[in-house]
Write a structure and sequence with these properties.
The chain is of the alpha+beta class. The chain is 52% helix and 6% strand.
Length: 205
């Protein structure tokens, strides 16, 4: 197998997942900041110009970070990060979707509409970015209530793929200078549990 990857939240998910499991895969680095994702050569690897992409031994290429992680989970089942029983898998999936769709995507939209690098990729809207900042804080308050039972991680007391998505959420929030309000003690506890892990992504520079 061969991995194409670069500095991005989705790329970080796969890197964290592999590090948590001790998986090593030969990796080709794609410099997205230098537009290497848009070269004719790389567009043959992924027509969307995105990372990560896992090239299988038979030549097929698997993209989308969670799909790659699921595939690697089957090859390397321990430590388990997607759950084992039907109930555990279902609740982890629920929290994966909630963190990604309800929180991560909103934080990502702040970056898309504020960061200079993206101004040629999207029609940036400063008012929409402000809206996303406000909505994200409201949704973090919702999460704080959900985690009022004192659990360490978002889907329970076990670190899972949902927390890996949470790591990239917190990473984006740091990049866009969005702080968790001091009164959201449960979310702050979760944040601390994630940033204290050796696999937490480092800020560039």
């Amino acid at each position: 197998m061969k991995l194409y990857n670069g500095m991005s939240p989705n790329g970080a998910r796969v890197e964290i997942f592999m590090a948590e499991k001790g998986i090593e895969i030969p990796t080709t680095s794609i410099d997205l900041m230098a537009n290497e994702g848009q070269t004719p050569e790389y567009l043959k690897v992924n027509a969307l110009g995105q990372v990560p992409v896992l090239e299988l031994d038979d030549g097929r290429r698997l993209s989308e970070s969670i799909a790659i992680c699921r595939y690697l989970e089957h090859l390397h089942p321990e430590p388990n990060l997607f759950g084992t029983t039907p109930e555990e898998q279902a609740f982890i999936e629920m929290w994966l979707r909630r963190v990604e769709l309800w929180l991560f995507n909103v934080a990502g939209d702040v970056g898309l509409h504020e960061i200079e690098f993206f101004k040629y990729r999207v029609d940036q809207n400063a008012d929409y970015a402000k809206y996303c900042r406000r909505i994200l804080v409201e949704r973090l308050a919702w999460l704080d209530g959900e985690m009022a039972d004192g659990r360490t991680y978002v889907a329970g007391d076990k670190f899972t793929i949902a927390d890996i998505v949470g790591m990239t959420l917190i990473f984006i929030m740091g990049f866009t200078q969005i702080d968790i309000p001091a009164n959201l003690k449960n979310v702050l506890r979760w944040q601390q549990a994630l940033v204290s892990r050796p696999t937490f992504p480092k800020m560039p520079g």
